[in-house]
Every structure is written in C-alpha cells, then in structure tokens.
Write a structure and sequence with these properties.
It is built from 22 helices and 23 strands. Mean pLDDT is about 75; it is low at about 1-10, about 95-100, about 240-260, about 500-565, about 620-630, about 640-655, about 820-835 and about 890-900. Belongs to the Rab3-GAP catalytic subunit family.
C-alpha cells in the first residue's frame, strides 16, 4: 500500500507567493503599460530614497565630472533591453542661472539644456542609441507618462541617430499645463557659411519663434545672449617658424637650417638638464573669455559683437594644457631621476648574489641565474667619457658641499651632491641601463682611477684636502676624504720637509701671568728641563709630557719660585692653568698643546672610531670615571678627607699654603703604575715636534684596500642613499618662485627619504622584501615630487610677470593629486577632474595676451580666418553661445496660488550653440502649452 505524504507548509507558502508574484492587474492591458508601470516603480523608489540614501546604496560617481553621480536599472520591453540612468548631484546650484554656465565639470546635457538632474534611457546595444524614430518617440512617451504619474519633474532624454552626432530628444513636465521639449544635433562637416558667424546664429534662433519667413534682419526680436570664446596658444614644442636662409643652401651644400635647430630646450638651464631633458609639462594654455548676458535686438548688433576684441569681455579665465606624462596613470613612462632610482633599487636587490664586485663582470664566474640577459656592460668609450667628466673636467677650486643643500639633506647618510662619490652615483644612474653589471664595471674603473691619482700624487678631484671628516656622510665619502687629506700631506712632506726657517728657529709661546699667549721666537739650541714624575706630579695624564719642558732665556740664572719665572718661554704650552702650581718646583702649571690642537691632528673615519673604542675597552686604559682633572680625584688629603674634592681644589688654588698636605692614592703611586710608565717613557718633546699621528702612506693604502675589497651590497646600499640625496639636492636647486606649497612638498620628501633609507644603515648584509617594497614606494613619492618641481619650474618661467596665476594653477594641480599619494583617502566628495580654470584679473590680461604671439604666414595650421573676435590674429578654437527668450505668462496658467494680476517672466526658448568653423552643435529647448 502506497503511503501518502503531506505537502509541507513551507512549500505551500512558496507556491502562494509565486501565484501572487505572477498576478496580473486587470488595469495593465498591454506590455507597453506594464513597461510604464516598471519605470514608474523605479522612479518612485529613487524619489523615496533621496540623494543621501542613493549615495549610501552605491551610487556611481561619474569620473569625468565634478559632483555628478548616477544610479541605473535594467528594463525590458518588446524583446529589447534598455538601461535607465538617473543623474544627480549633491548640490543644487549646478546648471543655469548660478554663474557656472560654462563650467567644464558639467555634463553635456546640463550644459546644452540648462538642467540639473535628469534621466537617460537608452538601449543596451553596441551603439547605445535608438536608430528608429518611432521607437524613440514611444520610449520617450513611456518615460514621460511614468514621471507624470509619480509627479516627478525630472527631464528625460533618449539618445538618437548615431553616437558621433550626440543627438538627443527629451521632454520635461513643468508641473503645470506647460511641457518643455528638448532636441540636440550636430553637424560634423561642411558647416554652412552663414552659421559660422554670429549674425547667422542669431537668425537661426529667431526663426524658431518668428511667425513667418520674413526678412529677419529688418525686424527687431529682443533676445538675451551669453558667449564664451576659447583661445588656445600654439604648443610650445611647435612654436617656431621654419625659414630658409638667404640663398636657400647652407655652406658645404648642407640642408637649410631653421630656427628649430638653434632653439634651446625649455629646461636648458634647469638643474636636471645635465642628466636628462624633461618634456615641458605645460603644452600651452586655453583662455576663456566670457561675455555676460546682454540684450540683442538685431543681427547688426551681432555683427558688431563679432568684431569686438576679446579684451572687452567681462571675464577671463585661463587653464593650462598639462601633459599626460604627469598623470598617475603614466608611471614608468617618463624618464627621470625617479625611473632611474627604481632601476638602482633593482640592482641593490641583485647585489646580494655574489661576494665580490668583479663577479658581475668577470667571464670566469657564472652570472646569477636571475640576472636578465639584457643587463649589458657599457662599452669602454662610454666609461672613459664618464670618468673624464668625473676626474678631469673639474674646476680647480674645492667644492663647497654646503652650498645649495637643503636643511634636511644631512639627515640622509649619503655623500654630498658635489662630492666625488655623489657625482659617481649620479653618473651611475645613467650608465647603461643602471643594471648591476654596468654599475660593477663602472665602480672597478672608478677605483682604478682613484688609485692612479694616489700613485701619481695627483690631487683627488671633488674632495677637500683638509678639514674634519664628516661622520654624518656615508663611509665611502669619508674614505675618499681621508685619502684626499693623505695625498695632500704626503705631497707637502715631499715638497717642503720639516717646518723650520733658515735660522733653525721654531715658533714658541710666551705665557704671561694672566694666561694670555704671545707668539715669540726662541733659539732652537735652548736648554730644556723636564720635570720628573716624582717632583712635579700635579698634572693631568692626558696632557702632553712636553708641557713640563721649559726653554729659558740664558741671560741669567732663573731660580725656582721666582715670580718672573712665570713669564718664561715654554715650548708647547697653551697657557697657565689657573693658579695651580707644581708640588716641589712651585712653578705655575701649564696646559700643553696636544695633537688634536695641531693641523695634523688624528683624522678618523667612522669605522676607525669604532676600532679605537674597541681597543680602548680591551686595554682598559680609560675607565668610566675619567675626567680632565681626574688625577686630583686620586689625591688623598691627610687633614680632612671627608671634605672631598672641593676642599682639595681650594687648597690647590691657595698660594699661601703650599704644598697641600696629602699624597697620591695607592692606585696612582704603586710600583709599575701604567700612567707612571707612560709618563717616564714619553719623550720630552712638544706636540709640534712629535711624530705625526697620521701616517699618510699607511692610511692611504688602507683606504684603497677598502675600496678595492668592498662587497657589492655594501657598495649598493651607500649608492642608493647617496643617489636619493644627490637627486633631491639637484631638484632642490630649481627656481620656481615663491611657491610655498612646493617648498613644503620638498621638505616632506626629505623627511620621508630619511625615514625610509634607515634600513640601509644597519650595517647588515641583508635587505628583506619589505624593505625593497618601502624603497619602491619611496620612488613613487619621489616621482610625484619630481613632476611637481618640473611643473612649478615651467609655470614660473611662463608667469614671471603674473606670479599669482602661477601659484594658483600649481596649488590647484597639487591639491588634485594629493589623494593619489595616499595622504588623503579618496571619497565621494573628492574631485575627479582637474578643474583648474583660474580667473585672470584686469591687470594680468596683458601678460596673458602676450602669450598669443601673432601667427606667421608659414604656420601651416592656420589657413582661413572664418570666425571673428581675433586675439592677436588668433581666432577662437571654440565658441559657445546661449540664446534665450523670455515671455510674461499670466498667473492663471499655473497651479500655484499667486495674487490676481501677477505676472512672471518665463524662459520659453533656449538655444545652446557650440562649435568651430568645422563643426557645429545646436541644442534647443522649447516650453509650450500642450
């Protein structure tokens, strides 16, 4: 027996919902009416949601327009699919009557018909337009009925004909007995001659409401007119006139020369021009001259207006034609410092593959597997030319490394811009394709040239031969500075020998009682008496032993303790130390000149300092309690030990109670004391006669050994830091006027570089993937600032007589690109279009007009002058005109409750005209009572 199962209640509910969903209302008799109902339902939903909810629910921003969004839905009718879009903005001042009729941020339909929000319904086809006339009319009628049913005043448009014509038909319910209809079309070629002039356009508009085809030029029809004329300068890379020289043929039978051949690049004197030539980011300018609304009564007035000068326009605004190479979408296409720094970072990543630089160029060693086959070594001729520029084509004067450097430049541990290694890194960016093999070959030849300078006793170019080694720079720069000093001292020793004059006298110092030092001359054969450790022990062990050597004048015997004894000549003395005296001789204690006070003081690089500290710690020579007068801390007072050092000092300074009662501590007086041994073994010579602490031959060879054995990664990490610093310092020399925002961008770049490049200063032979990503991001930031500097320089040159415009245009461009740097999140309120029109003030018009140089007869781009309103011989590249006609309508035509007899002016006709002598677009809006 078969079992019978019951249908679950959930299944019954689903069937019931399906029946209700497919229920047909008896009022919908046809598919066309159902189509109207679907449109109405969508429009009601959009009306109910409002602007804020539509934005929250995912309204799409129209990227090419400012403050314009859209929502869309798909519809079907008669086996065809349509897409209905609703365009709206967050502000209600878009369009007509708000002073921005000519804004480039307006949609074509907003500009053509003066509407704010609107609907567009179009077929989902390849063309996106309705090609059949009856279909377009029926489609527009369905939308109009749906909008009327939900009391919506949105205008609706349907694209017709072909896409190139930008043709539309539209309709709008005005909320009264009146309906507004729209129609737009375009002529792409063979524009009638009459419509190229303002008279013919005026008559075309009048013909839309004139009652007969009478002679329109003989009748008066008052209409209102607004006009916008756009002029465009000749592109700067084409602004030259090709002229043949007299005679037609140049000397030696060559081809005729033109001005173009003698024309310098725009950035010829910019700091980066030594390394690359940048494309001018400003291709030209567009000038918009706007005539505000005025009443026109005849075609004769239109003829007079066509002959008017653009200087008579009420408003001027200018917009630069910025090259696409500066856009964010063109990353990697522009060749500049940023692009080469990217390649240098790739070489840094590859430098970990081997332990020796020579392995990248040697044929005996296999290359790294992931090294590209395109990584070629530049030919010897290229390397010779670069080395010649580095070592031989250099001014004799030593460079001033601090000149022109940014205040934040020293925060980056690299080499100064004008230094030898700084210039090496800049050249390395452009040698070959900046691959690791090209860099290795260049470095090997560079070190060979440095060694040649050392062996031939030639001065090391681009490096100072004196001064103190700057430990804030990279180690390679410190080594080269050390080598330059060694070469100079080696040369001086070979040329001059010991520093003594013909009479064999040396420079000494006469120490006066008031501790002043006076230069005198003493005989070289004078006696010297050395105070031994036992009798004269109250001195600091870090002082030169020669401070206890006296050279007395032999005019008579000098007794110890004689007051005149303090004025005797002491070689190597820097002056009397207060009122301190030696314990047994009762002589004033003198401080010595030490080695660090002399010109040949010990110079040490960063690694040498580290080695010295390690040696000191190993020998335990200096302890944590060391001070200048730490010997006094080892003095034990017999009378009152608890009074400490302060009383000892007081006793020492007292000349009436001498010597002080006490003794040296056990640590300092024990047999075999290290300080006693050093003191006794030290020769009694002043610092000036001691053996130099710096051996130039030995230290020079150490430097060369370091350069020749430097590991690839150690080289590349210093090159990356130096290259960023040097390129930034180069760009920082650019003259761009008083652009404060550009100055801020440069300061931010230096701080970002300093933070990011710290990963290369850890002295570790490893760089991880995250560090490489950070360096790549730094290149992106560098590219943005480099583009801004190029733009700022170009604007500054073009607006030197109008700096306000230069600053306004630059700030607008910079603010537009801030979101793309990641400093500001991109949201719905961010501008999508670089709307950079800047109003030109009255006093700046002459400067702008001078940019439009009169065209020459040989310029091929100008054939026929077919339009008026010439600016220095230039006709407008486009002309936009808005004709309007207003009528007074009685209040009884309206639904509103207006007082009896009230009349309101109403725009009944509007025609927008846009085009040139080669094309013409016309958009007509007519309000009528249907």
């Amino acid at each position: 027996m078969a079992s019978i199962s019951k249908i679950p209640s959930s299944a019954k509910d689903e069937d019931l919902e399906e029946e209700i969903e497919h229920f047909d209302d008896f009022t919908l008799a046809s598919s066309w009416e159902r189509f109207i109902s679907e449109i109405e339902a969508v429009c009601r939903q959009w009306l109910a949601d409002g602007t804020k909810n539509l934005l929250k629910n995912g309204a799409i921003s129209v990227n090419i327009y400012e403050d314009l969004y859209k929502v869309k839905t798909d519809l079907k009718y008669a086996m065809k699919s349509y897409c209905m879009e609703y365009y709206f903005g967050t502000h209600n001042d878009v369009g007509r009557g708000k002073g921005n009729d000519w804004s480039c941020a307006l949609h074509d339909l907003q500009l053509s018909f003066g509407v704010n929000e609107f609907l567009v319904i179009a077929p989902q086809s390849a063309s996106g337009v309705v090609l059949d006339g009856p279909e377009a009319s029926k489609l527009l009628s369905a939308v109009a009925i749906a909008l009327s049913n939900c009391s919506c005043l949105w205008p609706a448009f349907v694209p017709v004909h072909v896409p190139s014509r930008k043709a539309y038909i539209g309709i709008q319910n005005m909320g009264t007995l009146y309906t507004r209809r729209f129609e737009a079309d375009r002529i792409g070629s063979q524009v009638p001659l009459k419509l190229m002039h303002l008279e013919g356009l005026y008559e075309l508009f009048v013909s839309k409401f004139a009652f007969s085809n009478m002679d329109l030029s003989m009748h008066l029809f008052q209409v209102n007119l607004k006009m916008n004329l756009t002029y465009r300068t000749v592109p700067y890379d084409e602004d030259f006139d090709v002229q043949e020289p007299e005679g037609g043929i140049t000397e030696a039978g060559g081809s005729p020369k033109s001005k173009h051949h003698n024309r310098k690049p725009w950035d010829d004197d910019c700091p980066w021009s030594e390394w690359y030539s940048a494309e001018d980011p400003v291709k030209g300018f567009e000038l918009l001259t706007i005539w505000s609304e005025k009443a026109i009564e005849s075609s004769l007035e239109m003829a007079e207006l066509e002959n008017a000068s653009p200087l008579e326009a009420e408003k001027w605004s200018i917009s630069p034609c910025v090259s696409e190479i500066l856009s964010a979408d063109s990353d990697g296409k522009r060749i500049g410092f940023a692009s080469q720094l990217q390649l240098l970072i790739d070489a840094l990543h590859m430098s970990l593959e081997t332990q020796f630089v020579e392995d990248f160029v040697s044929v005996e060693h296999s290359r790294p597997e992931n090294l590209k086959s395109t990584a070629i070594i530049p030919p010897p001729t290229v390397l010779d030319r670069v080395l010649k520029d580095l070592f031989y084509e250099v001014e004799a004067a030593q460079p001033d490394f601090a000149e022109g450097d940014h205040k934040n430049s020293r925060t980056i541990k690299g080499a100064p811009l004008e230094s030898l290694f700084g210039q090496f890194c800049l050249h390395a960016l452009w040698v070959g394709d900046c691959n690791i093999r090209a860099i290795a070959a260049f470095w090997i030849e560079f070190v060979r040239e440095v060694r040649w300078c050392w062996e031939e006793s030639q001065p090391l170019p681009r490096m100072p031969a004196n001064g103190v080694i700057d430990l804030t720079t990279c180690l390679i720069n410190q080594k080269l500075h050390m080598l330059a000093i060694c070469m100079d001292r080696k040369h001086q020793f070979n040329q001059k020998g010991p520093k003594a004059d013909e009479n064999g006298v040396f420079l000494s110092a006469r120490i006066k009682a008031d501790t002043e030092v006076q230069s005198v001359i003493s005989s070289q054969d004078g006696d010297a008496q050395a105070s031994c450790w036992e009798c004269d022990s109250l001195s600091t062990p870090d002082q030169d032993p020669a401070s206890h050597i006296s050279s007395f004048e032999h005019s008579g015997a000098v007794k110890l303790g004689d007051p005149e004894h303090s004025a005797c000549i002491r070689r190597g003395s820097a002056g009397v130390v207060g009122s301190m005296m030696l314990l047994k001789s009762y002589q004033n204690m003198h401080a010595p000149f030490t080695r660090v006070d002399l010109p040949d003081s010990p110079l040490m690089t960063e690694d040498m300092h580290e080695e010295r500290l390690q040696a000191i710690e190993a020998l335990e020579i200096f302890r944590p309690t060391r001070e200048r007068h730490f010997v006094i801390r080892d003095w034990e007072n017999d009378d009152n030990m608890e009074k400490g050092v302060s009383q000892i000092n007081a006793v020492v300074e007292s000349t009436y109670d001498w010597p002080p009662r006490g003794k040296l501590s056990e640590r300092m007086s024990e047999h075999g004391n290290l300080w006693r041994k050093i003191w006794n073994e030290a020769p009694p010579l002043p610092a000036s006669e001691q053996k130099p602490l710096l051996d130039p031959n030995q230290e020079g060879e150490k430097v060369l050994h370091y350069l020749e054995t430097l590991r690839p990664y150690q080289l590349l990490e210093q090159m990356v830091s130096t290259a960023f610093r040097a390129t930034a310092d180069t760009l920082n020399k650019t003259s761009f006027g008083g652009l404060k925002q550009m100055t801020t961008r440069i300061e931010q770049l230096y701080l970002t570089m300093s933070t990011t490049l710290r990963c290369l200063q850890t002295n570790s032979l490893f760089v991880d993937a995250e560090d490489i990503k950070d360096l790549k991001r730094l290149c992106t930031t560098f590219a943005h600032v480099e583009n801004l500097i190029t733009l700022a320089a170009s604007l500054h040159r073009k607006f030197m007589q109008a700096p306000r415009l230069s600053e306004s245009i630059f700030n607008d461009y910079d603010n537009f690109h801030v979101p793309k740097l990641g400093t500001v999140s991109i949201g719905r309120d961010v501008k999508k279009v670089f709307n950079n029109e800047q109003e030109v003030r009255q006093g700046e018009r002459e400067v702008i007009a001078s940019m439009f140089t009169p065209p020459t007869a040989n310029q091929s781009w100008r054939k026929v002058l077919s339009m008026g309103n010439l600016l220095n011989g230039h006709e407008p590249v486009s002309r936009e005109i808005i004709f309007t006609k207003r009528d007074h309508l009685c209040e009884n035509y309206y639904v509103g409750h207006a007082p009896r007899g009230y009349q309101q002016e109403f725009e009944t006709y509007r025609m927008y005209v846009c085009g040139t002598s080669n094309d013409l677009g016309v958009a007509l809006a007519v309000t009528s009572c249907d």
